[in-house]
Amino acid sequence: MKGVLIVVGKTTDKRFETIIQEYVERICHYISFALEVVPELKSTKGLSQNEQKEREGELIQKSLQAGDYVVLLDEHGSERSSIEFATWMQKKMSAGPKRLVFIVGGPYGFSDAIHKRGNEEVSLSRMTLSHQMVRMFFVEQIYRAMTILNGEPYHHE
């Protein structure tokens, strides 16, 4: 199984980028994992929020493959503890999808088409977080899940 995190737009803060890259490299010690960046839309001033979501959705769709298990990172999704998330990851990896794909949408969320394509939604917090922070927190949680599953002393209960 391959893990993929799809994000809209580059991480602009170099400090976040450094931390994100560090965790992506750590995750790769356990599973095949990639961070894919969908280009941010240019000239969005004339677009409504729905039009922007639709265009971003079209770009996201191009990164998806048949058979992907798609998880949308959305504030309205289900919340899990780190242990619960690790258990969930283990079940998904055992279930055998070719790719387990997580998606962080653009500033206005996901288009209807992406919501329909998603298999489920997960929330990191009921609080609103910047997309840059979501990327960092989420790759850390995937790494944490891998260490939990491997019995390594990173996570403390």
Structure, explained:
With 157 residues, the protein is α/β, with parallel strands linked by helices. It has a single domain (19-34, 52-149), classed as 3-Layer(aba) Sandwich (Alpha/beta knot). It has helices at residues 14-27, 49-63, 82-95, 112-117, 131-149, and strands spanning 2-8, 32-38, 69-78, 99-104, 120-122. Strands 2-1-4-3-5 form a five-stranded parallel β-sheet. Helix 3 (82-95) links the parallel strand 3 and strand 4 (99-104). Helix 1 (14-27) packs parallel to helix 5 (131-149) and helix 3 crosses helix 5 (131-149). The protein is globular. It starts with a strand and ends in an 8-residue tail after the last helix. The relative contact order is 0.24.
Record field, number of beta strands: 5
CATH overall fold name: Alpha/beta knot
Tally of separate domains: 1
DSSP helix fraction: 40-55%
- What strand order characterises the main sheet? 2-1-4-3-5
